[in-house]
Amino acid sequence: MRAVVAGAGIGGLTTALALHAAGHEVEVFEAAREILPLGVGINLLPHAAKILADLGLLDDLVARGVATRELVYFNRLGQRIWAEPRGVLAGHAAPQISLPRGVLQSVLLEAAIARLGADRVVCNRRLAGLSQDERQVTGRFVSAEGETSRPSADILVAADGIHSFARAAFYPDEGPPTYSGRILWRATTWAAPFLTGASMIMAGHQDQKFVAYPIGAPRADGLQQINWIAELRIAQSLRREDWNRRGALEDFLPRFQDWRFDWLDVPGLIEGANAVYEYPMVDRDPLSRWSHGRVTLLGDAAHPMYPIGSNGASQAIIDARALAQAFGA
User: Fold this and answer.
1) Parallel, antiparallel, or unpaired: how do β-strands 70-74 and 199-205 relate?
2) Of 74, 229, 324, 325, which is least surrounded by CB within 10 A?
3) Rounded CA gap, 184 and 194, in Å?
4) Which tens digit of pLDDT belongs to each residue from 53-109?
5) The CATH number of 178-282 is which of 3.30.9.30, 1.10.10.10, 3.40.50.150, 3.20.20.60?
6) What crossing angle do the helices spanning 10-21 and 46-54 adopt, rounded to 10°?
7) How many Å apart are CA 68 and CA 71, to the nearest integer?
């Protein structure tokens, strides 16, 4: 079987690797001119890590991230509420891995290029059209300069994100994503390790929360790269479809200014970041179906989720395995 994958994000690249491992021919098209290691931190939950382990990627991911030991909940005063082990310490077959999102995508990309071939991962090609009949599907991919590629295949997997062209083609009246009433500010900061040095913490409550976890080993000076998320309930966001806009400290730091605990200095962590990004929490309503003939949606194109709890990336990885298993059956 020949497959074309639209999108070289985590879902798209994992799908390409899973289909290739199952013996299928795969080609990936990505809208960006170059796939760069962008983004802040991310968590791979054990069920997703196990899938990547089966693809031979686990050792590389663990070496470039942190195997999370525990998840600890605190109140807004920094008082401990509850702790639980994570990953293999909780009895899972694979660890929970905290690492930079760009590192995860780089590991997937390196594997895709090595296994599929460098000419099978094509950048600067955005999905802009598709047609299908009983024999094949043809995608129309367009470059920023207007150049067009028209690959044909047995299936086309649209892993082209929350603003998916394919989803809009099948559901043209859906409208914009739905805003949840909450905004996340996300960044990474080099700081002293806290708790075990491999702990993930959640402090606060539903309307005001702070999450932090390390995403790499301490460097020579003893500092560790800490990924953090500050979350606030904000009644209205007029810019809800922009997820890479720089955030302003004055919009959220005052609410966390007195969160100085004996085990973590929250305002110090916030102020120590080089750049902060603002992420409105949005999703979409469920669809009645993801597959239409020889085209199927995957990951955020199929079921976008709030960017918390490691939902999106882990579910996209599960999608990739499920799709490969479905074709194998």
Assistant:
1) parallel
2) 325
3) 22
4) 999 999 999 999 999 999 999 999 999 999 999 999 999 999 999 999 999 999 999
5) 3.30.9.30
6) 40
7) 8
